[in-house]
Amino acid sequence: MDKTAALASDILLGIGGENNIQRLENCMTRVRVEVHNDDKLDVTRLKQLPGVSGYVKQGQQHQLIVGPGKAAQVVDAMRALMTGGETAHAVDDAERTKAQAKARYKAPMSDALRQLANVFIPLIPAFIASGLITGIINILKRPDIVGDFATQYPNLLGILAIFGSAVFAIMNILVGVNTAKVFGGSLAMGGVMAGILSSPQLAQITLFGEALQPGRGGVIAVLLVVILMCWIEKRLRAVLPGSIELILNPLLTTLITGSVAIVALQPLGGWISEAIAHGASLAIDRGGLLVGAVLSGTFLPLVLTGLHQGMVPIHVELVQAHGYNALLPILSMAGVGQVGAAIAILMKTRNARLKKVIKGALPVGLLGIGEPLIFGVTLPLGKPFLAACLGGAVGGALISYWKVATVITFGISGLPLALTIVTGKVMLYLLGYLVAVIAGFLFTWLLGFNDPEE
Fold first, then answer.
1. What is the pLDDT of residues 413-436, one digit of tens each?
2. Paired strand residues for 33
3. Inter-axis angle of helices 171-182 and 187-198, nearest 10
4. Where is the PTS EIIC type-1 domain (predicted)?
């Protein structure tokens, strides 16, 4: 049995067997499990498994941090070991009632923001590709690096520019489809609603004495309109006779939602998106060191609560409004502080297992994937987590003061983010990165920590 299969088997035992699984899934770095009975979980055993660098519980979901790429492999191996799959086991009435009661009392804000994030998470690969391609173009345009490459190969740069900007050309459509998927509507109808808001023909229509603006409100308007569409579609499905529902539902949904969108929701979305873009830019431009320190220093506590997911539309709005994102480089410093803290712990600790966890988590931490360091190293030790946040605050303050910005929305951080930083600010970003590492190291060294025996 290979290491992945062995880890999958050990996790199944630690969570009480396959019969205790209600839902099993994974993200980039975590195995996510919801169970019927929490009393059957052996959390202590799970935390000590080789290959598990951390454990966290969010709502009713138990999350085991196993690392990027590894999470999907472990979940696949778990499903292969399960005889009937997690959906094959019925939940008795008492257990179902218990699960529903627990869900009812979860923080509503956290659930809403998680739904919001689920709209954008599938777009991360496209954002990463777009940002990196744009970064490559910026390098190829610099004569001090590649000479007269830009003048010799203008067609190649043009093609790359198309590759890099394609995601933004269809952004609203993608968001419309994903919003419909998350909120239980028809995917095609979600795309249609986004298409209505983005149609160039809107500019030819005057309403209340003003010409309509195609694309006004960006993704905020799309979110509002498609959520309304899903609600209307469900209500019509419940009241229309089955024989005509297939025909009348999409017709009525389009006419009702489209009308409300043009008259009210698109203007509302426009005001909200403009307030977000202008407010965030104003805070960063005029807040300087203080705003950068606060944003970066408090970001990881927001991650722990799940409230950070509400920032995703803000990132998208900043790029749509200005063509760059000044918020992401600041927030990325939060994870950089964890790197410095982890290096300090590695030098101080005598615990062999902790050293092994740090050595495994540091490389991906440098690349911007900080969860193994946060949940496997700094957070369980207490003081190093605070020290890392302080180190990130120092880096965030400098990044804000220097007005470093990136061409990407979200989905990438750490050292790879340097490839997407706007021209002229790359070295400042790398300097801020280095300072955040040093600050996280020094704060951890000064505050200290209780070295665990186990």
1. 888 888 888 888 999 999 999 999
2. 24, 62
3. 140
4. 114-454
